Amino acid sequence: MLDALAAVLEAFLFAGLLSCTGAVFAEATLGGSSDTARFAAQVIRRGALLTIVAGLAGSAVLVVRLGGRFDQITLSAVFLSIHGAAFALQTGGALLLLASVAADRFTRSLRIANAGIAILSFAYHGHAWNAGTGATILAVGHITAAAWWIGSLWLLERACSRESPPELAALVRRFGALAGRAVGGLLLAGLILAMLIVSSAATPLTSPYLRLLVLKIGLVAGTLGLAAYNKYRLTPRLMLDDIAAAASLRSMIRGELVLIGAVLAATAFLTTVTSPFREFDF
Amino acid sequence: MKLMGIMLGPAALLFLLFMPPASAHTAIKATLPRDGAVLQESPPVVEIEFAHAARLTSVVVSGEDKSERRLEFTPAGSAITFKIPEPGLTPGRNEIRWKALADDGHVINGSLTIIVKPDAAGTE
In A88, A105, A158, B18, which residue has its Cα 20 to 30 A from A273's Cα atom? Predict the structure, then answer.
């Protein structure tokens, strides 16, 4: 039960961290109206708070999973390990994001650096750490692209109900121009990363890790299906000032976010309760 | 941001229902005495050797009367082999359960059973 709780907290940590950093990246690349900027600041604030709360709760649960003693041995195991390094970067990055919400140009640049600090925590996360430096760099790139995608979806979801059709169409156009490369990079990095981890660990084909990984890939495929529908069916209608297309796009983006939530939950369970390494088999 | 709940709620519930059972990792390479050993008296030291570096955080022994006792161990940091000096096992079946954090951040745990012959004397 504690393992399940740890995985759920990890999923919330992923959601918070990717939402707040993603909103920073999306705001910097997509621009948008003052309402979009205000909403981005709201996503950054709430995502950063969720990151801090989930990170603290996850650390407390880890102490309990390690025997429940808040003594020097357990606390140094938790905070002087890769968990501690990841915790320091994600919490530090989130706190800096909370402190850099102003709309001036300098603060916006600072926000990108702060989001980068939080994203770097993924260098110390999951199984990429065991698979070498190349895998670690790929993991950070993979997460950065995922964060941008999630942040963009939050902003687009809001814009569908708040922006005028020309504003929304312009935002969708800017998103479309970058999404192909970002999502392509995300997928490529993810696939190479999965192959590196599985091959370095000689993961048995029937392991829970591989089964969950296949489920995650299936969920990603579903998300891509929705994204493709948005790009090839709804976006052209939006460009023709079809009012109903905005409402449809909003529903589809919500569907994408729910599927991405499932992907994050799968990833949290992959990295918390399963391992690609044979000797950690359940 | 209501969507944050919608985003993760159903997924977390689904994974909770279908998650693999998490228990009984077997990340140790060897123990001394070995698991299941039958001894005349309590060993002077118990050694746990991991397959990879880890940080041992908890070792608990329970004897025939099911009462639990924490055991001290060395070293305190990351290592491959840990020693539990003077475990003071009592006559009968002793289960030693351990918990550790692997260097890749995974929580690992396991147990070994050592039987001290009931007619043994001087188990401390």
Answer: A88
